[in-house]
Amino acid sequence: MANKKKPAEQPEMIKKGYSANRRMIHVLVAVCLMFLSLVTYLLYFNMFEAREVAANPYNKRQWEDERFVKRGNIYDRDGVLLAETVVDGDNRTRRYPKGNLYSHVIGYYSRVYGKSQLEMAYDKELLGHGDITINFNELRSGYDLNLTIDHDLQQYAYSQLSGRNGAIVALEPATGKVLCMVSYPDFSPNAKTLEQNWSAIVEREDSPLLARATQGLYAPGSTYKIATAAAAYESGRMAETFQDTGVFEQDGMKVANYGEKAYGELGLKRGFELSSNFVFCTLGYEMGAQKVLKKAEDFGINQGFSFDIATSKSRIEYKKMVDADSALVSIGQGQLLMTPLHVAMMGASVANKGKMMQPYLVNSITTASGVTLATTRPSMAYQPMNQECALYLDELMRGVVANGTGTGARISGITVAGKTGTAENETNKDHAWFVGYAPAEDPKIAVAVLLEYDGGAGGSNAAPIARRVMQKYLQ
Amino acid sequence: MTRFRGLNYRRPAYLLMLMNLLGFGLLFVKNGYNLNMLYVGAGLLGLFIFIYSIIVLCNMGDKFIVLMACMLITIGVLLLCRLNLEFGIKQIIWVAVGGVVFFASYLIYYHIRFWHKLWMFYGILGTGLFLATLILGTTVNGSRNWITFGGFSFQPSEITKILFIMLLACYYSGAWEKPLGRITPKWMTLLITYLFIGFLVLQRDWGTILVLFAIYLFMIYVYEKTYGFLLMNLGAASLVAVLGYRFLYHIQVRVSTWMDPWADISNKGYQITQSLFAIASGNYFGRGLGNGSPGYIPEVHSDFIFAAVCEEMGVFGGAAIIILFFLIAYRCFKIAITATEPYDKAVCLGLTLMFAIQTFIIVGGVIKMIPLTGITLPFVSYGGTSIVVNFISLGIIQAISAKEERRGGGKGGK
């Protein structure tokens, strides 16, 4: 057909608009695109999907290294053993001597359901990856993790929750070290028990698999007035007085004080101590949506922070936020949700003179023979306020404990600063909150306590728990 | 084209040797100094040098296509040896047979000049092979496409692919003009295409159906001046595809495991998810030859060998294989475009498309870009019939290239 004898015939054919050779070049281009799409897809898969796919528990490769490696141990900051691997011939059992206590920090390690929390995040280190010694058929040890957690405090905080659903997080304000982090309900991380009870655990209504401290999202209630007060300080409204009628009314929205008390004439400081919704709604409304949102972002809300284990991002979710919404957000309600860890960080940032430190759980990684491979250096995550503002807030928060809603957190001989919260939610049982730190002069510990669907006030139910945790730590 | 004359054809040959030395050297050390690895490597290298020397010395046309095919074979044999030395040794024997067949098909195609008159022979032989498969065939992995006799089994559909291409070339080169009864050759090719596809449906060999039909469509595109016939065939194909999806459970399963293999990992999605695990574990540079666990992947030595390549040689290794196939296709297209004899041109185009489409279908399937249909990856997968048939195809392309080169005194696709 085409191109029968000499290439000289070609120009005529091109004129007619058809040439077999030209069509062949089209096909070549098509083949080229086909191969290009293969390479592109392969690279795309590797860049965006491979990590998740490789971590699937059905991927048997994850368990291969285990045959030659004794998974590393996990210790608290004083060397108390929290997780270890027992080798018995070809069998490896991951043992958690402290039972359920660390199920939301260390997580579980199951061949059927995979890994979670630190077991997942530090899998490579626990397996000793990056170790260049090669010895076949000889059991190698993975690296050990040394946590920032104080086991005694963890145990004590756990006992203080005494079976109530909620979370307690304690931080060292100056460094961001997590001193204790308890979430309840919990579960047994022991692989055998977990595999037997998996469906029951998953189906339980109070979701024991949810790490409330890091992944639970709650309305922070009045504890969020810390951020609002910081914004008010920056707007220079410390000297203002308010005429508290007990009910804030604006744009057809009504917000009452807790217990619908009318406090009459009072300033910002007293309003903070008594946790007046009237005062803070007024401030939030008058500062406007933009300023309130900006301050929230200064505190890392809608921004997130990195942590050793997975966290939910605290957030304010409005399609378009109006000033009435900012009034609600300013008292920690509306579409504002925070994790207990983040609330603790908010308190710790006041204690640390305005610097919000990056929280961390793993203090150092060491080899089995005790050589330290890496130590975490404290770093700042956000600076939500300047030092003067922090000092002002410190004064307000001391007032809350001295003669405000947080007297339940008072410790004799130690100055405590804090803020209570009683957060309304979709049920008629409020969340009880307290966030605080001590000693106020030189803060060593910042604590956030959340009692989920508690029904009581933060000052009466959460504050005493925080007090006992701080007292225990400062002894 | 003449500027390619100066292209150094020795350097890629050295690279091929280096790949062999390093690869088999590594396997030798890795497998506790197993000397068999070295023998296999030496045997393969010897074969390549022998084949390549003859091509260069006898000036048999394009010098790069066979080199690139040898590189693919090397990668395949390395992985097969690493999976199971027995497979590797068998594969080398097939490569040796393939080498002989390569020269035989080269000589036969070069010297016999009446290929374009044999359309009826291709049609009848093809149909005969299909009937034989249906009657004598054994079912492997749900596809009834193997014939076994005397402990020796082969896949007739691999051979039919070449017959089919030669048949299409008869018509599209313009050599077959006489109608058979009242049916013109154009409709005759259409009938035979659909007949072959019908047989393949009975064998449940979906991969080969896709290859044959895609070759047919591309041929129509290249040779039919107007688009009507192409559109008609496309329409018919989509209708058949929709009907097939509605009524054939096999096809529904393939599509649903393609869309979400994770829903049924331990069952229907097992193959493809194991393949994805392997690719995902390899990352960019792979876990290293001998360090991965391709043993978890079902059918890893044949259809899924690409996943094993990605695991041990990384995504870049996989991309390199794709690029090698592209380069082969590119050189073959050049030969097809510069070929002066219409029949040679059509045959060369068909064979090139066969390599390209087959690669696309199986690689795309293994990486879950398109639904998975099991066919072999040319030159890399384990399998006697596949290797031999691919070598026959190469021999034909080589003969066409040599013809042009000798005729045009270098004007041809070198």
The share of residues in extended strands of chain B comes to under 5%
With helices defined by DSSP (H or I, 4 residues minimum), what is the helix count of chain A?
14
Distance between the termini of chain A: 98 Å
Oligomer: heterodimer
**Count of helices of chain B?**
14
The helix content of chain A is 25-40%
The largest beta-sheet of chain A arranges its strands as: 4-3-2-8-18-19
Strand order, largest beta sheet of chain B: 1-2-3
Strand runs of chain B, count: 3
- Biggest sheet features of chain A: 6 strands, mixed
List low-confidence stretches of chain B: 410-414
Note the overall shape of chain A: globular
CATH topology of the domain at 214-362 and 381-474 in chain A, what is it called?
Beta-lactamase
The average pLDDT value of chain A, as a whole number, equals 88
Query: What would the principal axes of the Cα set say about the shape of chain B?
Result: globular
Number of individual domains of chain B? 1
Biggest sheet details of chain B: 3 strands, antiparallel
What is the overall pLDDT average of chain B? 89
In terms of DSSP E residues, the strand content of chain A is 15-25%
Q: Which chains have the largest interface? A: A-B, 38 and 48 residues
How many β-strand stretches of chain A?
23
